[in-house]
Amino acid sequence: MSDMLVIRLKHTSELKVNEGLTAIQMGAGDKLVLATTAMMALMENAAMFAVADDLPEGSLQAKRTSSSGTTDGGHVESSHLRPSKIGDVVRAEAEVTKILCEQSDQGRADSKKIEFKVSAYSGEKLLGEGTHLRFFVDRERFISKLG
After folding, report:
1. How far, in Å, CA of 64 to CA of 23, rounded?
2. Model confidence over 71-129: pLDDT tens digits?
3. Measured between alpha carbons, how far is 53 from 60 in angstroms, rounded to an integer?
4. Residues near 46 by Cβ (< 8 Å), separated by ≥ 6?
5. Chain-centre distance for alpha carbon 118
6. How far is CA 78 from CA 2, 36, 40, 99, in A?
7. What is the pLDDT of residues 25-74, one digit of tens each?
8. Are the C-beta atoms of 99 and 5 separated by less than 8 Å?
9. Domain limits of the chain?
10. Is the domain defined by 10-144 classed in CATH 3.10.129.10?
């Protein structure tokens, strides 16, 4: 992991609501509005990319099949305060708020988890906000556990 991974790293991801992202299509409700699951996935996307450039060489931005470090979502908690209709542009913002470390066998700090503040907006209207936790994982070892 790069020494540059620091609290306050941020990223914004954006999507345009389409029928495939609605509660009806995702099986999460009976209305043609942005599904909560789609909003939360956008929040996870923003968090993933907030740290992507500061992970071990070649992780998310290149060599997607190499044995390099990446992150994996472990927990997301968010409100969903208002609906978004088809055609609305929604943006999610993620900011690193905490890096949780454990001591390695060699006595140095090895970061294991990253906490984020996440929020979603349509224009200036807040759609939802919460927290997200991502774990550092070795891509190859993680995929090998699938069996």
Report:
1. 31
2. 999 999 999 999 999 999 999 999 999 988 766 566 554 558 999 999 999 999 999 99
3. 7
4. 11, 12, 13, 92, 93, 94, 118
5. 8
6. 29, 9, 7, 20
7. 999 999 999 999 999 999 999 999 999 888 765 444 444 445 578 899 99
8. yes
9. 10-144
10. yes
